[in-house]
């Protein structure tokens, strides 16, 4: 008897690949464990490749299984999005653009993009999700996002990157701190204080820039806390647990007892870039791409 691969085979495979446990995968799929094992064996026979390494204690993916998991997850995600886009278009929409962003992008860049796009293409919908640089790149590559706003110098092959905003850096202090706009001359004035910084997970290049701002003034900051969220950093500063250095644009949108002093006489700038996949086929993205050009956002 000959068999052909069907959609259910890939559904079963992905469940086992994600759970790495046949019983848990079977429960998730609402089928019996022996039945699931037979389906996977049948799939391996049709493909002619072993997908899992099984022993009494563990299940792991082979190299072929790892490759197939990545590709099947990509295909399933694309199918889900295509179905959603089809439904939106049927209801009169021109589709959806999925946007990932770092917190600083929501202050000016994203609102400007949405206003411009809504004016020309009111039937395009947008979904927004705050994400780390790493997660945005991963989601762009896997077609789970259309656009990402990141602080990176390099991206993988096949991903386009364009700087959309260049920002200065500011020192963040508790409101009652002795430093003010009048007497603030250099970050060296807070060299003995504890620093609360964005984690290198937020952006390694961004973290390195902040370190270099301090090192250029003759000191290495004492880093007591790290976070990937601006709100958390500002709250810690407000509580007197240290000072911070952030892009100046982040001073808007928060109502906390902190103050921002733009750092003078430094060469470092905070570059915010937009990324998208070169072969992204979302027609709605094609329509709004022109608003990603800084020259067209004025």
Automatic annotation (TrEMBL):
One of its GO terms (molecular function) is DNA-binding transcription factor activity. Keywords: DNA-binding, Transcription, Transcription regulation. One of its GO terms (cellular component) is protein-DNA complex. This is Transcriptional regulator, LysR family. The keyword Isomerase does not apply. Residues 5-62 form the HTH lysR-type domain. The keyword ATP-binding does not apply. InterPro entries: LysR_HTH_N (IPR000847), LysR_subst-bd (IPR005119), WH-like_DNA-bd_sf (IPR036388), WH_DNA-bd_sf (IPR036390). Belongs to the LysR transcriptional regulatory family.
């Amino acid at each position: 008897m000959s068999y052909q691969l069907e959609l259910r085979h890939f559904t079963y495979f992905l469940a086992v690949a994600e759970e790495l446990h046949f019983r848990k995968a079977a429960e998730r799929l609402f089928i019996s464990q022996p039945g699931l094992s037979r389906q996977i064996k049948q799939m391996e026979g049709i493909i002619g490749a072993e997908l899992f390494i099984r022993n009494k204690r563990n299940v792991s993916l082979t190299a072929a299984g790892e490759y197939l998991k990545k590709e099947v997850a990509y295909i399933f995600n694309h199918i889900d999005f295509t179905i959603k886009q089809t439904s939106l278009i049927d209801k009169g929409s021109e589709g959806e653009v999925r946007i990932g962003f770092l917190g600083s992008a929501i202050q000016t860049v994203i609102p400007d993009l949405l206003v411009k796009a809504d004016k020309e293409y009111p039937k395009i919908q947008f979904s927004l999700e705050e994400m780390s640089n790493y997660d945005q790149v991963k989601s762009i590559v896997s077609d789970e996002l259309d656009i990402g706003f990141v602080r990176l110098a390099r991206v993988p092959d096949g991903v386009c990157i364009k700087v959309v905003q260049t920002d200065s850096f500011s020192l963040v202090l508790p409101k009652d701190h002795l430093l003010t706009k009048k007497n603030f001359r250099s970050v060296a004035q807070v060299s003995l204080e504890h620093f609360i910084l964005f984690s290198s997970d937020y952006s390694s290049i961004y973290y390195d820039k902040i370190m270099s701002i301090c090192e250029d003034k003759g000191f290495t900051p004492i880093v007591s806390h790290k976070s990937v969220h601006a709100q958390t950093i500002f709250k810690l500063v407000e509580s007197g647990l240290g000072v911070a250095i952030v892009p100046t644009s982040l001073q808007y949108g928060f109502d906390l007892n902190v103050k921002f002093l733009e750092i003078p006489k430094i060469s470092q700038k905070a570059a915010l870039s937009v990324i998208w996949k070169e072969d992204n086929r979302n027609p709605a993205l094609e329509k709004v791409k022109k608003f990603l050009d800084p020259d067209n956002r004025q």
